[in-house]
Write a structure and sequence with these properties.
The complex is a heterodimer of chains A (591) and B (176). Chain A is an alpha/beta fold. Chain A has 23 helices and 20 strands. Chain A is globular. Chain B is built from four helices and nine strands; from the N terminus they run βαββαββαββαββ. The chains are: A alpha/beta (591), B alpha+beta (176). Chains A and B meet through strand 6 and helix 9 of A and helix 1 and helix 2 of B. Chain B: This is Acetolactate synthase small subunit.
Chain lengths: 591, 176
Amino acid sequence: MSAATNETSLTGADIVLKALRDQGVEVIFGYPGGAVLPIYDALFQQNDIRHILVRHEQAALHAAEGYARSTGKVGVVLVTSGPGATNAVTGLADALMDSIPIVCLSGQVATHLIGNDAFQECDTTGITRPCTKHNYLVKDVNNLARTLHEAFYVAKNGRPGPVVIDIPKDVQFAEGAYRSPADSMPKSYRPQVKPDLNRVEEAIDLLAKAKRPIFYVGGGVINAGPVASQLLTQFVRMTGYPCTTTLMGLGAYPASDRQWLGMLGMHGTYEANLAMHGCDVMVCIGARFDDRVTGKVSEFSPNSVKIHVDIDPSSINKNVRVDVPIIGDAAHVLEDMIRIWKARGKQPDKAALAEWWEQIEFWRARDCLRYDKTPKIIKPQYALERLRAAISGRDDVYITTEVGQHQMWAAQFLPFDKPNHWMTSGGLGTMGYGLPAAIGAQVAHPDALCIDVAGEASILMNIQEMATALQYRLPVKVFILNNQYMGMVRQWQELLHGGRYSESYSEALPDFVKLADAFGGVGLRATEVSQVDDVIAEMIKVKRPVIVDMCVDQKENCFPMIPGGRAHNEMLLGPDEKVENATPEDGMVLV
Amino acid sequence: MTARPSPFASTAIERHTISILVDNEPGVLARVIGLFSGRGYNIESLTVAEVDRDATLSRVTIVTSGTPMIIEQIKAQLGRLVPVHRVHDLTLEGPFVERETALVKVAGTGEKRVEALRLADVFKARVVDATITSFVFEITGQGEELDRFIGLMAELGLVGVSRTGVVAMSRGPGGI
């Protein structure tokens, strides 16, 4: 080793901390254990990076996701070997499906023990290979700094995703040379961000000639940064065309705008799905034609020319054949689209567009989200409408959810006018996501109002994180729509399995008010309609972690709904519609 | 309203030979194979070896089959693996040569042994090991050629076969 290198020689653990600092990391989420003790020791001896101690490694990942999604930064996680790494797997898979930039450092047994079935050993890179964007096992301390910087580059560039770095304990102790981020670019990974302009011209031509156009927008626009949302809004308004967003894309276009048709897909609005079905030109930006969105693929938007903008070439022509693929970053592409639209003096076909809007307004007049407003029982939709009223006008509200009916109602009823304020597990559908994600968002925005809209079943999957919230004085609010059922499971059993509610009823639930109290938080409950507003007001007023137990109608179902195997124009709008023949036999196998 | 016709409309199954240049690092082959098994793609043949020691690059040759849309997906999925430098669809990109080597062990005596040797000569297979009662032949060629030779040896005391899988390269001066 040369003298020059010797001067900058650091232990592996110190290299980790220095690399994190050089990457601008301010906070990491983690849980210590034997194989990461040297890194925890280095963490103890510095003050630049804050560590949030979670109560389960899965929650560390979701908290980092909440942090990443609410800030646009990379979320960083530190876990130990063996069970630490395997517990992280669900969160990694979640981040991969939803394209969230995460760097997860895991401890590993010493290099000479790898493969020996040592205590708390597992093949972390083997296990996490299919649920990460990329992963590394660092066996030489001199490669550690380069690998860390490369991991951050890979996590945030191109289509973002989780990256794991597995670091054996002896490498954390060993001394080696440090390298700067600029000196650590990956050899081969250079995703295309600027589009092929010929394709953009072609898309603009098609768009200008369209008679029944629609923008179909996904989470890719949010991942491309707030500027992409601004450009999208500008372009959509410039054209006067309707716009719908996916679950992941909520907030990319202001929900309060008339040109927004609401969310599309399985529980999307009537107007959004019928507009998708009837359009003649579809512009998909940063969405991936997921099965929740398309319904029956063979009958998906049968008469449209499809333009697909995506940063990931493998998203193009995966589920649905498209006519004009455009590979690039959403912000770059939108910028080019606006520029070319103006430069070519394009104008929408005003007469055709007026007719199209007339049709859309006719669909919108069905008021597909209406529900039976009874004074006798709290409807979950009503609770969310009151929450919406209570938070309207505030731009410091961050909403997370668990997974199920409450998630769909939150997507339908809460207002998202800006990107990065809505965090939900879209692709993987991970129950237990919401509370840790809200904690991550609250860590990033200490004075904001962070609300986890939850179900009573999902919340129990990571309820231990209440202790994390208390420890760091994070005033997260858990807003439970408690119907004592795994509501979405019960809904499918009612519609598709003859009302045989196999294992979907929770016979023994905790008293959530006492549970909040036991953790040191505040518990509130509403059992009657008249209590809803007071409970919501109190929840917002209290500057401590709160669990709200909103006791809602046990039988309410989530509509509209496209049953599995059906097309966009075969929606069920409410409980009065016939459900016996809702799903064809070949649709039964679909999830 | 219509755009130009899509090249992916066909549902016919096609066989494609794909060449990939990758960083020769631990786990890279697992990534490629995991992608095929995880997404349900076919692998007819897969070969890999380091081709540039200084740059630590390996070249992987995969023979796969699927509809044009699936083949396009396979290439896009391979392309987004971090250690992958380049993906070339040799089948689409023009004429290419494809070769495979097999070692074929045949045991027997008398007329069958003579016939095996005579056929080996016809197929330009080399004898790389011989005993009084056996031969190991080395044969290089197109896959079908190897299949035919091995088929004939089955009648003449075939003991076992070891095949390398396909390696391929485009014709002409262009590199990968």
